[in-house]
Amino acid sequence: MSKLRVGLLGVGMMGRHHARVIREVEGVELVAIADPGGDPHGVGGDLGVLPDIESLIGAGIDMAVVAVPTRFHEDAALKLAAAGVHTLVEKPIAHTLEAGQRMVDAFASAGLVGAVGHVERFNPALQEMRRRLEAGELGEVYQIATRRQGPFPARIADVGVAKDLASHDIDLTSWVAQSEYTTVFAQTAYKSGREHEDMITISGRLASGIVVNNIVNWLSPMKERLTVVTGERGAFVADTSTGDLTFYANGTIPLEWESVSSFRGVSEGDITRYSFAKREPLRVEHEAFRDAVLGKPSDVVTMEQGQRTLAVVEAGVASSREGQSVSL
Fold this sequence. Notes:
It holds the Pfam family GFO_IDH_MocA. The chain is of the alpha/beta class. It has two domains: 4-119 and 283-299, Rossmann fold; 121-278 and 309-327, 2-Layer Sandwich (Dihydrodipicolinate Reductase, domain 2). It has helices spanning 15-22, 53-58, 73-82, 97-110, 124-134, 161-177, 258-264, 281-293, 303-322, and strands at 4-9, 28-34, 63-66, 86-90, 114-117, 141-151, 181-189, 199-206, 211-217, 219-231, 234-239, 244-249, 253-254, 267-268, 271-273, 326-327. The strands form three sheets. A nine-stranded mixed sheet has the order 15-12-11-10-6-9-8-7-16. Helix 3 (73-82) packs parallel to helix 4 (97-110). The chain is globular, with a radius of gyration of 21 Å.
């Protein structure tokens, strides 16, 4: 069976990783790269670098990955859809909801796979957590809280922290819970002198009744990537920066040491850090995209899901501006 021909638009900080992974995935072949800005990281190799999306399409590709700044997603995606090319765009899906919906509609009407690169969903810690939740190991889920903070990345200039980082947490929260956001209340801050927000806190509720909280910023010297899911039997803690998953069981043994009891609580349970295979999330994402194109079962993040995530992000920004909760 011949390999699927893949084209890559954009070889910047994220695009260079896409180039490496595409070359490693079975069943696909990177045949063309395009970037109007050239090849700053030298990933083109024998392929060289084409100047624009039209040249990329002209190379005769089956699939494409779009890893250019968000404001350029719509133009590239619509041209790829018109050319009959299955496409994965980096998150967020687009710079506006209107642009995102045009992308969703274009790929749906063409019968093509349209996907969004919410790569955190493919993190091994979250994948393992999702499997254990599905198996009922936590019982009923009460709350999901995420913390994603660290220093400002100079490479991000066209969007704020809500679209760039909070979109990760919104997508993974809905996916882990298998439930959509129904209400959000958010607050933002602008501390670095940029036009876009660099801090956002989102509180909300999912359709299932689960309470959620997402704390995101570009202002912390401490890099943190945590997802905590609390339920009737304890709590799962996923550290997506290391791929570790830990379970804190509800306590059943009373503590008799008074000073420890007052510090830790009235009882404590077992703490388990699981061992499991830890594959690179980006590679798993590309395998899911490949399988979707081949018509196989796949967990690829669809453009419809990416659009829903963008809607929650926009609702959060609107909530912070208006000072009241927003229903979705």
